[in-house]
């Protein structure tokens, strides 16, 4: 398979010429990486003569790495490719335009406009006008009649504008999203050795031949072969689907693959394949190629009715799993698993999206009914008036004119529909989210999933890590217990015995990852920089404070000389390193959480550095006198110990035997100060009704001390602080299973969970989310940085990963990345999330007022005066400013601190509160009163000609222009009212902070002046005098005063107000969502509609059968049979689409009515019959 990037041809043709330069080609290395374990080792040894020889062929040094010479790097990129997988092509602007055109209402409008255009060019001879019942045209009307095409053209033009605006919004959203993806990719760096120095390199810069340092928590960026490893375990499930961790070692399996996660240990590898030649890259290329083929197949398959293969490569984290044959055992097991999975509660699409979709569908239905009635009334009135009351004959030559009238009525009906359907809603959500995401970047929140931003506004609980999030993650040793003495400051080196000092220095320098180090400060007088694991950096800092040099020790014992390393993991909670002693035998240094290591110690060093026995009672005394006082000051306690093996080599794999009989050297207390801004942030959370819980691996006293400093627990509170063990004992039954009832008794009071394992964190998060104790389901946010936090981050409603300390695995599982690892940023995310919610509500309040008024005006106007006071083009203009610009203006309101002074809305809170309903109806009353007064009495008030009952192509009247102008100006001032939704009085508060809002209001006003003064025929407008303009403005400003009157009325007194836009209840979801992976509320609404439609069809058919039977006098049995059959009709859900298939269970008896319902392909587009 050739390399499908730009370098395709040159890469392969150059391999030949470079054969002399590098001892292997791209294809050789690709073939090598496809092998596993022993096959791979054989191939390396036989074909390349071992890993070291392979490094020689790739012209790289296993210790020093590549030289970093630009020419060499460039050459490697040309021969072996770059470490970059080309993304899928984004949709072009034209494709987005085409998508926007698919909107049904727009299509209907286009058709109506085209018919109107065609008919407007038809001129009947003048003398027949009398017979057709139309006034005879005077010469000046001729010009007007000529301009009849303008309306149709204007509608088409408006449609084009709407489509372009929608497409542009989609395009910019896509662009922002791509930018975000690029930023996330750029942020991923990897440790590579070049010229003997470890440097952090962006993943895309890695080339074949690089020596990469790998450690716990890394996501491997390229394929490679292990050169040296300590206790390395890899999670390869993203490639193989096997969840067990794979041990990697030089003897057993040195093949490391891109896209897999390092779960334990550390090591170095030589990179052998990058980009599209790596294993992940190959799969991505296949996926890319197969997607094109899939689409082709689907098209063909639809025609032939071939059932599609359900077992396509299931992707997880964007990487495909193995593609299984359909009828293999695994395939069948998978089917079983899928069936089981279907019973689990479904993950909803975002809450807001769900509420909005339901609301939009409901409004749309109402609009459809209104518009249909409008058209019917108009046509009936015209027909009855002309042919019944005036008794005119229908003349064939008049038909086109009548049709023209009908088309005009139809256009009015469609306009009502267009105004009724709030297509601005999805736009408002998109704009609001996109705007928030962009601004949240500045607040150190990198949002990976758009809906996480809005979910955060509903958060009721935050489970936070301690280290790095609540604290500064800048650790320093401040106390130590060495040789029976508790030092409250760091002792001077002279106070310690030389051999004790030596043990401390070696025990710390050798037994820590060599990637952890302390570098000189970046700025003069600053603090030294800590690189790598912060706890290890604190210990190395301790060595430096003792005036010793850890570099010298590491140079003496380089990483290659380490005999065996037990790396730190969440189960061991300790790290040990074994070295060979020059005199023979082995020495093991250990360090870890003090209570864990001390349990394994049976000796301790005294003041003179002599070994003393260390019994249980000594340990208890030490815990009481040393460890607890340190912990109660919020210090982390770490114990350093060692053990000598002098009687030959033990079995290293038997860990329990090895990690016993240790000798304790020292216990140190490490301080990690609380971030100064955290207590204030936590107080804000409490005010906002959000509970903060701390979940940490630290000892309970340390955890409690820090929690008190942060303000998570305050003295005298009735809250729980538990250790992981105790927590598990309280929530599990005898079988060791978690019981929700037991958990429900614990979590409401739990504030600190100490010494917790990743599983405890996951159990707690899952328990809180699944709990039904409160009146609302809890929305939980979780922070995590370690590899093992992945499951909890995925389970939470919003997962926050640490940008600085977080591992790649944690970032992969998260929804939002905190680029500064700071708890305060989470509070900012809550603020932005609530702001999104409020922005949408503001827009809804504005939008619905306009909808209600416009629909009622068009409807009643049409019924009473046979013509809508607001013309189609005017309605489209109102729709455009309302929907598009208002959503832009109201959705970009910046958040204020006041958002954090109320409780979270919760999942079931309706979108439109009663206060908002009061505002909507209140303003609608004002606007309707004004408009109806102007329609029916405006000509008298302004002393102008009436615009009512105007003939077909009559010129625009001043009367109707005033109505249109007043209507738009009232909307404009109501837009300012809509900035507040909780009944605040000052609607201008902070208006100048939102420049977009000011620009939109001003821009709309100027456009309105231009339309009225120069819009002419297309907008059905005519020029107004200055006094008329002032009256329009005066009425518009009246909106602001009326808003003050409305906010005076207490909402409680208006009992009749209902809320609208509720979330979906759980029962409805489970009933309707069988077989769906994600619940899409729009689909559910449509689906319900279809089921009702089929039931209706079925009933009608039964009735027709009954009538037919009576007519033919046939026996009654057939009908009964038919009716029972009707009861047997199965309404099946077809999960892959929103179509419903009605499949009969028994074969229908032949009746005289064609069985419409029983045709198996009804509603199932692909033409497959479903048994």
From TrEMBL:
Report the record's Gene Ontology biological process terms.
negative regulation of calcineurin-NFAT signaling cascade; regulation of cytosolic calcium ion concentration
Which PROSITE patterns does the UniProt record give? ATPASE_E1_E2 (PS00154)
Q: Tell me which SMART domains the record gives.
A: Cation_ATPase_N (SM00831)
Compositional bias, Low complexity, is annotated for: 1146-1161
Keyword terms, alphabetized: ATP-binding, Calcium, Calcium transport, Calmodulin-binding, Cell membrane, Cell projection, Cilium, Flagellum, Ion transport, Magnesium, Membrane, Metal-binding, Nucleotide-binding, Phosphoprotein, Translocase, Transmembrane, Transmembrane helix, Transport
Quote the EC number: 7.2.2.10
* CDD domains according to UniProt: P-type_ATPase_Ca_PMCA-like
Every copy of the Cation-transporting P-type ATPase N-terminal domain together lies at: 45-121
Q: Which residues cross the membrane?
A: 368-389, 409-435, 843-864, 916-937, 957-974, 995-1016, 1028-1049
Q: Which GO terms describe its cellular component?
A: plasma membrane; sperm flagellum
- First-listed, main subcellular location of the protein, grouped into a coarse class: membrane
Region ranges (Disordered): 294-317, 1146-1171
User: Which residue ranges have biased composition labelled Polar residues?
Assistant: 1162-1171
Q: Where in the cell is it found?
A: Cell projection, Cilium, Flagellum membrane; Membrane
| Recorded topology in the membrane | Multi-pass membrane protein
Q: Known Pfam families for this protein?
A: ATP_Ca_trans_C (PF12424), Cation_ATPase (PF13246), Cation_ATPase_C (PF00689), Cation_ATPase_N (PF00690), E1-E2_ATPase (PF00122), Hydrolase_3 (PF08282)
Catalytic activity reported: Ca(2+)(in) + ATP + H2O = Ca(2+)(out) + ADP + phosphate + H(+)
Instruction: Output the Gene Ontology terms for molecular function.
Output: ATP binding; ATP hydrolysis activity; calmodulin binding; metal ion binding; P-type calcium transporter activity; PDZ domain binding
Q: What does this protein do?
A: Catalyzes the hydrolysis of ATP coupled with the transport of calcium.
Which family, according to the similarity comment?
A: Belongs to the cation transport ATPase (P-type) (TC 3.A.3) family. Type IIB subfamily.
Q: How does it assemble?
A: Interacts with PDZD11. Interacts with SLC35G1 and STIM1. Interacts with calmodulin.
What protein name does the entry list? Calcium-transporting ATPase
Q: Which organism is it from?
A: Zalophus californianus (California sealion)
């Amino acid at each position: 398979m050739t390399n499908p990037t730009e370098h395709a041809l040159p890469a392969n043709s150059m391999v030949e010429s470079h054969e002399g330069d590098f001892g292997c080609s791209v294809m050789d290395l690709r073939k090598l990486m496809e092998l596993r374990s022993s096959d791979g080792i054989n191939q390396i040894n036989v074909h390349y003569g071992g890993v070291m020889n392979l490094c020689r062929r790739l012209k790289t040094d296993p210790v020093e790495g590549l030289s970093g010479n630009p020419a060499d790097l460039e050459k490697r990129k040309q021969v072996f490719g770059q470490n970059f997988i080309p993304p899928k092509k984004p949709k072009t602007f034209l494709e987005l335009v085409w998508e926007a055109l698919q909107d049904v209402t727009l299509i209907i409008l286009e058709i109506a406009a085209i018919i109107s255009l065609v008919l407007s060019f038809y001129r009947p001879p003048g003398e027949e006008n009398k017979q057709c019942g139309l006034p005879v045209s005077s010469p000046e009307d001729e010009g007007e009649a000529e301009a009849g095409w303008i309306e149709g053209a204007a509608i088409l033009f408006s449609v084009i504008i709407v489509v372009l605006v929608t497409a542009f919004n989609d395009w910019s959203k896509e662009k922002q999203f791509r930018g975000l993806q690029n930023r996330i990719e750029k942020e991923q760096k990897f440790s590579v050795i070049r010229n003997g120095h470890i440097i952090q390199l962006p993943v895309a810069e890695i080339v074949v031949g690089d020596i990469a340092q790998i450690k716990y928590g890394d996501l491997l960026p390229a394929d490679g072969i292990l050169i040296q490893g300590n206790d390395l375990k890899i999670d390869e499930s993203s490639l193989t689907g096997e969840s067990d961790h794979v041990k990697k070692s030089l003897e057993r399996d040195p093949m490391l693959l891109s896209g897999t996660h390092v779960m334990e240990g550390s090591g170095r590898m030589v990179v052998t394949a990058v980009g599209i030649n790596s294993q992940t890259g190959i799969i991505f290329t296949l996926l890319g190629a197969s997607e094109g083929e899939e689409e082709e197949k689907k098209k063909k398959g639809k025609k032939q009715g071939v059932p599609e293969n359900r077992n396509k490569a299931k992707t997880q984290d964007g990487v495909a799993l193995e593609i299984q044959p359909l009828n293999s055992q695994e395939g069948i097991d998978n089917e079983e698993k899928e069936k089981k999975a279907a019973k689990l509660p479904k993950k909803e699409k975002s809450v807001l999206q769900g509420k909005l979709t339901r609301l939009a569908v409901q409004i749309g239905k109402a609009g459809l009914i209104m518009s249909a009635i409008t058209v019917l009334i108009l046509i009936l009135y015209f027909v009855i008036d002309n042919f019944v009351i005036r008794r005119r004959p229908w003349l064939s030559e008049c038909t086109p004119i009548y049709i023209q009238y009908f088309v005009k009525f139809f256009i009015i009906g469609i306009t009502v529909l267009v105004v009724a359907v709030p297509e601005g809603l999805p736009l408002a959500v998109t704009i609001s989210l996109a705007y928030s995401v962009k601004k949240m970047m500045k607040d150190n929140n990198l949002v990976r999933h758009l809906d996480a931003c809005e979910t955060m506004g509903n958060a009721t609980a935050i489970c936070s890590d301690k280290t790095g999030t609540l604290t500064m993650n800048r650790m320093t040793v401040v106390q130590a217990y060495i040789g029976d003495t508790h030092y409250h400051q760091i002792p001077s080196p002279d106070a310690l015995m030389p051999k004790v000092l030596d043990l401390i220095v070696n025990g710390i320098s050798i037994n820590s990852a060599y990637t952890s180090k302390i570098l000189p400060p970046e700025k003069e007088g600053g603090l030294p920089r800590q690189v790598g694991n912060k706890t290890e950096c604190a210990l190395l800092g301790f060595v430096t404070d003792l005036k010793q040099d850890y570099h010298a020790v590491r140079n003496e014992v380089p990483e290659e000389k380490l005999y065996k390393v037990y790396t730190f993991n969440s189960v061991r909670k300790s790290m040990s390193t074994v070295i060979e002693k020059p005199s023979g035998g082995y020495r093991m240094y250990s360090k870890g959480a003090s209570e864990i290591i001390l349990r394994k110690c049976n000796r301790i060093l005294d003041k003179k550095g002599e070994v003393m026995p260390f019994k249980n009672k000594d340990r208890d005394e030490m815990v009481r006198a040393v460890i607890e006082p340190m912990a109660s000051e919020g210090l982390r306690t770490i114990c350093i110990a060692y053990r000598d093996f002098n009687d030959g080599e033990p079995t290293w794999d038997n860990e329990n035997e090895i990690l016993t009989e240790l000798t304790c050297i020292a216990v140190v207390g490490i301080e990690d100060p609380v971030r100064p801004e955290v207590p204030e942030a936590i107080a804000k959370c409490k005010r906002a009704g959000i509970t903060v819980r701390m979940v940490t691996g630290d000892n309970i006293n340390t955890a409690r001390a820090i929690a008190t400093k942060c303000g998570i627990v305050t003295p005298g509170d009735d809250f729980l602080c538990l250790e992981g063990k105790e927590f598990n004992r309280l929530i599990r039954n005898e079988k060791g299973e978690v019981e929700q009832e037991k958990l429900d008794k614990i979590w409401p009071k739990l504030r600190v969970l100490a010494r917790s394992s990743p599983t405890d964190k996951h159990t707690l998060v899952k328990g809180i989310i699944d709990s039904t104790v409160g009146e609302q389901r809890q929305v939980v946010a979780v922070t995590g940085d370690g590899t093992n936090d992945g499951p909890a981050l995925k389970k939470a409603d919003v997962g926050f990963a640490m940008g600085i300390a977080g591992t790649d695995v944690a970032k992969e599982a998260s929804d939002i990345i905190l680029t500064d690892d700071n708890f305060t940023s989470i509070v900012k995310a809550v603020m932005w999330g609530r702001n999104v919610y409020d922005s949408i509500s503001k827009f809804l309040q504005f939008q619905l007022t306009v909808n209600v008024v416009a629909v009622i005006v068009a409807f009643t106007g049409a019924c009473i005066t046979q013509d809508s006071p607001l013309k189609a083009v005017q309605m489209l203009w109102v729709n455009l400013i309302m929907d598009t610009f208002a959503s832009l203006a109201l959705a970009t309101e910046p958040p204020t601190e006041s958002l954090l002074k109320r409780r979270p809305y919760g999942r079931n809170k309706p979108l439109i509160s009663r206060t908002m309903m009061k505002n909507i109806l209140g303003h609608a009353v004002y606007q309707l009163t004004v408009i109806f007064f102007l329609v029916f009495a405006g000509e008298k008030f302004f002393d102008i000609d009436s615009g009512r009952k105007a003939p077909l192509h009559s010129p625009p009247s001043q009367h109707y222009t005033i109505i249109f102008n007043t209507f738009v100006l009232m909307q404009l001032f109501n837009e300012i009212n809509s900035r507040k939704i909780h009944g605040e009085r000052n609607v201008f508060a902070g208006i100048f902070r939102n420049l977009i809002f000011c620009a939109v209001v001003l821009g709309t006003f100027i456009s309105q002046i231009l339309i009225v003064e120069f819009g002419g025929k297309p907008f059905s407008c005519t020029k107004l005098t200055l006094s008329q303009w002032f009256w329009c403005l005066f009425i518009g400003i009246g909106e602001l005063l009326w808003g003050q009157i409305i906010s005076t009325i207490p909402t409680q007194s208006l009992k009749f107000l209902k809320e609208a836009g509720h979330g979906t209840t759980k029962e409805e979801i489970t009933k309707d969502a069988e077989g769906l992976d994600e619940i899409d509320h729009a689909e559910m609404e449509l689906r319900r509609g279809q089921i009702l439609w089929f039931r209706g069809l079925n009933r009608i058919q039964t009735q027709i059968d009954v009538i037919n039977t009576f007519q033919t006098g046939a026996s009654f049995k057939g009908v009964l049979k038919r009716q029972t059959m009707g009861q047997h009709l199965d309404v099946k859900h077809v999960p892959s689409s929103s179509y419903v298939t009605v499949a009969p269970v028994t074969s229908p008896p032949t009746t005289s009515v064609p069985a419409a319902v029983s045709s198996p392909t009804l509603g199932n587009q692909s033409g497959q019959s479903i048994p």
